[in-house]
Structure formats: C-alpha cells, structure tokens
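Sorry to interrupt, but I need a hand with the structure work. Please put the record directly below this note.
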Amino acid sequence: MKSVVSLSAGALALAIAASSNAALVYGGGTETGNRFNPGAGAITYMNCFTAVGAGQNQLALESAIVGIRRLVASGALVDVGVNIYAAEMTYDGTNFGRGANYLLYSSASLGGGAASLTQLVSTGDITSQGVTLNLETASNAGLGGWWIGVEFTGANAASTANGWRVVNAPTTGASINAFGIFNNAGSNAFQAFFAFGTPPGASPSRFMVDVNGTLVPTPGAMALLGLAGLAGRRRR
C-alpha cells in the first residue's frame, strides 16, 4: 500500500486521451502494483475530466465502476464494505474543492474468496437516481471536471488488505496525477491534492475508475473540443 503525502508543486503532469466511446467519459487506466486505503471514516476522491463543447456544463451519470484491490490474509480475503460517491468539483481560481456529494452505491460486504484479486465494483445503472453533476469548466479550457469517491466501511474499513487500485493515466478523458480526501486523519474537511512519490506526483497517483454518462446538452453534430493540458494547483 502506498502512503500519502501532500503535493508541494503547483503544476502537475497529466496524461490526456480523446474519448473513443461516446458513453464512456472517463477511464481505462492500466493497473500498477499499488493500492490505497486512507483509513476508516475517510473518503478518497479521484478527479475526472472529459472534453466538453460549448454549453456542455453538466454530466448526467449512468454508471461507475471502481477497482478494489483485495489481498488474502490467513487464507481468505479480508471482507470490507464500500461506498461509491460522485461529487461536483469546485475551483476558486487557486484551489479545487468538493461541492454537492451524492452516494451512488453502498454495500456492507464485498464477499469472500481464497485468492487475491482486483474486484470490479459497479454501481449498476443509476439513471433512475437522476444524478446530474454541474461540471467544473473554469480551470482547464474545453474540459469539464468532477470527482468519484470511494469509502471503505465496516469492521475492516482500515485494513490495508483492501485498497483502491492505483493506475496509470486514463485512456479516455484526462486527470491530474493526484487525488483529494475528505476527513483525512479525522480532519472533517476536504483537501486536494495528495500524491505519491518523491517529489509528490513522481509515482502514479490515480485510481481505477470508469464512468459512463451523457453530457448535457448532448453534442449533436458539434465536434468535441480537443483535450488540452490540465493545470493542477494544490489546496493550501
């Protein structure tokens, strides 16, 4: 499991790719050998960006899948519960924050097993929940951003045998190589950004998540704007 350190650099390197599937707005990063668990009561948030056209400032969510790395201890998987959230992203010209937060999925148990694995946890079709996020479009021209969050729950919530799988850059959409946490070490506050490595961000600091949704209004015949470089700034 990776330990977490605060970012000390204002700008972060990003990997960007155009969407190849109209429904998939973010995802496709390849797995690394690491995972992350911030401890009981904390929610880790991955920043997600997708290309938007003129007037496209909302995202109607259809589904999300996160990858949870689970390891065997004493011959069996350590069971854990998980909550999956989506949150609006705010930006004040310097800092990124968390706005409206929605619980998309909750399970008290990810089940058992006798072999370590990366378990794909899906919200299923959530269109009936009517979750439409206002996108953050001020920080990076032509891009709209939001957060996907994961919280571990239950008696084993803090067990490092379970963690959100760390991945490399997405193949669909774009992201800052860093993440946010709500209630880190009992702070009761949202903080961004954190990253792995020395200096922070030297190692992959993204998490395994695929998000399907529809941009509002839909693009129609309008071509999506090309993805440009993202600028990341640390929260002070």
